């Protein structure tokens, strides 16, 4: 009993370390992602590290956070970076066509769930609750996969940019848990309709209705076309 308790204490320390790392990495990638690549790779690596730490702990480290359980959990070390990498990708990159992004995200989500669920002692699928939890992790895995695929596609894209011109016809700000700035642009290049495009705060305040902006359109490293708006 004493040896088991000593071993459990060691796994509790590891779980606390991974959860703490998850919180710090998420704060890093969301609020101050500098250097950008380092923040991305840290957020990318931590969720699978947490899953593998649980799988190779002999049942001592759990994925789920259960109130009153004697076993430590790495849920937050898994959850926070998965969500953070998805939020960063949505904030930083404007995707023109999502088909390949969704395909890539689905592949990563399946692998994510495979690591999490296959031959797991924690997920036995004996109740509706466990199926619901599996669906939750599937959605989380898809969000993580989407963030990873979009970031890899755009961050490492070396294709030459095609430059298009567009005109600002309107501006608006969406406020809620976060503030998003939109420019309404006339049709440009492959975009045949007037569209609202999210831009950073600085660009939003620099340009005005009736002014022209440039669209830098690129193929994408993973064949996911994307674009940037500049003045």
Would you give an account of this structure?
Helix 2 runs antiparallel to helix 3 (75-92). Strand 5 (212-218) and strand 6 form a beta hairpin. The chain has a six-stranded antiparallel beta sheet. It is elongated and about 75 Å long. The protein has 231 residues and is an alpha+beta fold. 52% of the residues lie in helices and 17% in strands.
Identify low-pLDDT runs: none
Sheet with the most strands, sense and barrel status: 6 strands, antiparallel
Structural class: alpha+beta
Q: Which sequence of SSEs, written as H and E, runs from N to C?
A: HHHEHHEEEHEE
Distance between the amino and carboxyl termini: 68 Å
Q: Could you tell me the mean pLDDT?
A: 89
What is the molecular shape? elongated
- Count of helices? 6
Strand tally, please?
Answer: 6
Q: Largest beta sheet: what is the strand line-up?
A: 1-6-5-2-3-4
State Rg. Answer: 21 Å
Tell me roughly what share of residues is in helical segments. 40-55%
State which percent range the strand residues make up.
15-25%
